[in-house]
Amino acid sequence: MTAGKSTASTSGAQSTSGQIHDLLMGRIQRGELGQDIRLVDTAVAAEFGVSRMPARDALMRLAHEGYLEPTTRGFVLPRLDHREILEIFDLRRLLEPRAAAMAALSLSEDELKGLDDILKDAGSAMAAGDTEHLHRACEIFRNSWIAAVPNVSLRKALQRYMTQVQAVRLMTFAHQANHPLIVAGNTQLYQAFCRRDAVAASDRILRFVFEGEAAYLAAHEDAGNQNTTSSAQAG
Question: pLDDT tens-digit profile of 136-177?
Fold first, then answer.
């Protein structure tokens, strides 16, 4: 009887943590949290009317996924500077083509079917103008094919710079003109996977990283121009 209550309590805490995670992730993806916002587990717990543990679990999960980074006084949005982001683009060009080639040869039929379903979901989200849903679908697509990379060390290396990927994604997804390019890139990568074409998969992900860097640089320049305009108006 005691064990049953313990299991039910644990399941309930996990469910609550998952709900908080999804709500906070939605706020991040919609741009509702700025760099000056600090998320503290006690404050999050109070907002949602829960104990501290599920709130902290949700924040830790978001940090693991690259949406937040922990500090001594709570959790904040990733604080990568421009130079760090560009350096990680260099790493991605070195690592991801090999990873995509390996995934092309190792994805199972069930995993390919799952990728197809995710792409359809992404297409529907784009058509509906649902940026938050599209963002999540593209994240799941990327995580799914990376999970199929048989080289464990390579897979872990890709996962280590998730913070950079999320930071860039949050900037580039803000511009709807980028959405068709992102969905098309994922679709072409999926098609290479279906053909078991390691060379095409490697080439597509390399071009995808270059395209992502170009979109990031454009977004970074826009942000710089807006800051300059705001400073001039304030002066």
Answer: 899 899 989 999 999 999 998 888 787 778 778 877 887 888
Q: Which residue has the higher pLDDT, 210 or 164?
A: 210
Do the Cβ atoms of 58 and 24 come closer than 8 Å?
Answer: yes
Which phi and psi angles does 118 have, rounded to 5°? -65, -40
- Residue 184 and residue 8: Cα distance in Å, rounded? 43
**Exposure b/e, 48-85, CB count within 10 A at least 16 = b:** bebeeebbbbbbbbbbebbbbeeeeebbbbbebeeeeb
> Do residues 63 and 76 make contact, with C-beta atoms less than 8 angstroms apart?
no
Nearest to 88 by CA among 3, 213, 229: 213
**pLDDT higher at 215 or 124:** 124
Amino acid at 131: T
CA separation for the pair 156, 207 (Å, rounded) = 22
Tell me whether residue 152 is exposed, middle or buried, using C-beta atoms within 10 angstroms of its C-beta: 0 to 12, 13 to 18, 19 or more: exposed
CA distance 91 to 114: 28
Q: pLDDT tens-digit profile of 187-204?
A: 999 999 999 999 999 999
Residue 166 burial by Cβ neighbours in a 10 Å radius (0-12, 13-18, 19+): buried
Q: What is the DSSP string of 112-155?
A: HHHHHHHHHHHHHHHHHT-HHHHHHHHHHHHHHHHHT-S-HHHH
Collapse the DSSP code of 24 into the 3-class scheme (helix H, G, I; strand E, B; otherwise coil) and give the result. helix
Residue 189's nearest CA partner among 92, 61, 101 is: 101
